[in-house]
Amino acid sequence: MTKTCDGLLFGGMNGGGYAEYNLLAEGVAMQQRREQALAGCLLGGAIGDALGLAYEGLSPRRLARLSPGPLRFRVFPGLALVSDDTEHAALTAQALLRSRGDTNRFERVLAWRLRLWIAALPAGVGWATGRALWKLWLGIPPGRNGVHSAGNGPAMRAAILGVYLARQPHALAEHLARSTRLTHTDVRAEAGAHCIALAAAQASQGSSDPLQLAHLLAPVLEQDGEGMADFRMLMRAMFESVAKGERTQAFCAAQGWQRGVLGYVVHTVAAALHAWLSHPQDLDAALEDIIRSGGDVDSTAALVGGLVGAGVGVQGLPPARCAALRDWPWNQQRLSRLAIALARGGREGSLYPCWPLALLRNLLFLLLVLGHGLRRLLPPY
Ligand SMILES: [Mg+2]
Where is the signal peptide (predicted)? Predict the structure, then answer.
């Protein structure tokens, strides 16, 4: 179709013209919603990651002692520094941009992005993710390099896949499988990432209905495999807890997670979905709930932020939080450009960041995180 909205508006409409105009207007509105959801997912995830980073590894009790007031970006005051969670989401978005639905190409591009990423020595890489990516450098082909682990790596890459492929469930499952097996082979890692992707897809379609989500997740959770029965039981408890209106912190405490939600995808997914379903429209409230549940909170908060952002769009995120995203390379502008390119079919933002600069940035990041970690050794305990 070559006509533009303006052309139709000023071209003198007959009955067919109105119908065509309505269709075009609907198409434009859909594209705008998609842009909003993609940008909201990337930016919301980055905000959650950056806010959670300062509190990573703390128990709920210690966190309450250290930070009784509002949660802030504390690794470098006022600046939202992001970790592997945002980087994996952004690299996945870049791979989607380059591959445009071709799963083989998606796997190849994502594998190269992750190779370059690990070679820039990022801080705080998960054990399984690190091992799997160095195996790629040793020549083991993508898809055979994964490590048997049920960690959080694949879930970090899942929400953006869910939003981008929200209307294509088979393509989503295929992309998700390729993304997961680049690092993890445990059935729970793929099932957990699939749960996050489906929740993000649902959020991007404007729904946060727990019953609809339970229906969507059922086929994923009904798979056989190591630990899947426990995963199903935990998810059932999560939906019951949400229905009762319990806080996420109370749900986590009832599971006996006194040290917080650690890096096990089954626990991470249950806690993240609980916080999202409890506050689907309110990023700050959802992040407060998940971060105060303690543990691996940059990852859990990144997931929650991505889900809330996919639902409310970038316009529903707190502007001050977005403006604080001034890290390099994954700042507000770059993440927004990436989302727009994904929605409109452009190429802008598809290049990997300059590798030597990434190395330097990671060194500075490590020093800041270590400094922050030392400050956290001080009282109150
Ligand atoms: Mg992280």
Answer: none
